């Protein structure tokens, strides 16, 4: 631990320095090292506090009050380095600790320290991923990681392709664009004017990015049809085929079907095998959005939920979700090699010269729709090496066991009602009905429930002890959507959440 005298000396040194007086603009290594050491100390304290269950997840402040607690203005003159360190402390102190073991509010949460180390190293290297000459090790690393992912899907790595993208929404866009290009390659140069009126299909519970991709590509959001789901949130194959046939009769040209492996709200897995049969019958591109559920492929015990994924033409997989890599880390995988290059290649002469002294097929940037491409693979590669395949098997199986435990606990706890009686993944959706309204008429209970979850969530945020999301859906009033994805979660944390919901719910006026 540092002494008060040393802290004063450090403060004095940093207060006397501004950024241009340390590396890279100055050779002042002593000042550089002191500044970075202080920033690391801020990070280490944050990591320690975030994993302390006695520490709050957040100190909630409304926006007008928050703006008074931290100076976010950009100054005319440079601020000294001590002030920058203090600003770092304020930003982390006032934010939400999404890596806290009792934060259940979203799919992407937790803080894997090995992945974090990879992200620190990535930021330090600050390398663009467009050509092999700039990022030789990282380009090969991306291929190595993708090989594991292709094998997990069930494809031949010698024939598959893929790219890391800035999020699952963009990965889904890559898939739809490639599907259109395979069928109508002239659309890349001539647009939509010489091709039929296209349409695509996705489950009504799928991620909104499928409709967004349809809009961005000029197909139109209204030509992306939502297929009904059953009581467990799975796409109904018969309804899909009926809509495909109906679309053809109306003069539209179906070309793309998206199944979801792990829906955002209910965690449902669409019936991939049956949908794959339909796609083959109608000669449609079969895409699987496994952004959330792709990690299940790493568990021999649970990968059956994605049976048929190997028949897909493309798969979206977000390691920043179930696998726990730091945001963002998303991949779009393709069964057919070469299609990405054909679809997206722009052949910019200042980057992708064909007479370089190495195999230019490793200049993977020309199969991306971006120019600059962030290195999202180092943090995943390092984390995956730290766990191995067996480590991921254990991690995913543990989370599934915790999901079963939590489901069992709320079934036996008075006042809780499940939306889906037996959740198949890590999403558990439920209501809490306070005792004072349990004997009311069903219509009145439903009306009251609309306000119960928001009030309990507000109570959680005021206490700062835990967080879980809520939402309405279709005709259902607001319900809690519990996500178990943080590898730090224990049964005791789940018990704590149940008690906290009951305590806050019973105290509502």
From TrEMBL:
<feature type="modified residue" description="N6-(pyridoxal phosphate)lysine">
    <location>
        <position position="321"/>
    </location>
</feature>
<dbReference type="InterPro" id="IPR015421">
    <property type="entry name" value="PyrdxlP-dep_Trfase_major"/>
</dbReference>
<dbReference type="GO" id="GO:0016831">
    <property type="term" value="F:carboxy-lyase activity"/>
</dbReference>
<keyword id="KW-0456">Lyase</keyword>
<dbReference type="GO" id="GO:0019752">
    <property type="term" value="P:carboxylic acid metabolic process"/>
</dbReference>
<dbReference type="Pfam" id="PF00282">
    <property type="entry name" value="Pyridoxal_deC"/>
</dbReference>
<dbReference type="InterPro" id="IPR015424">
    <property type="entry name" value="PyrdxlP-dep_Trfase"/>
</dbReference>
<comment type="subunit">
    <text>Homodimer.</text>
</comment>
<comment type="similarity">
    <text>Belongs to the group II decarboxylase family.</text>
</comment>
<keyword id="KW-0210">Decarboxylase</keyword>
<dbReference type="GO" id="GO:0030170">
    <property type="term" value="F:pyridoxal phosphate binding"/>
</dbReference>
<protein>
    <recommendedName>
        <fullName>Protein CBR-UNC-25</fullName>
    </recommendedName>
</protein>
<dbReference type="InterPro" id="IPR002129">
    <property type="entry name" value="PyrdxlP-dep_de-COase"/>
</dbReference>
<keyword id="KW-0663">Pyridoxal phosphate</keyword>
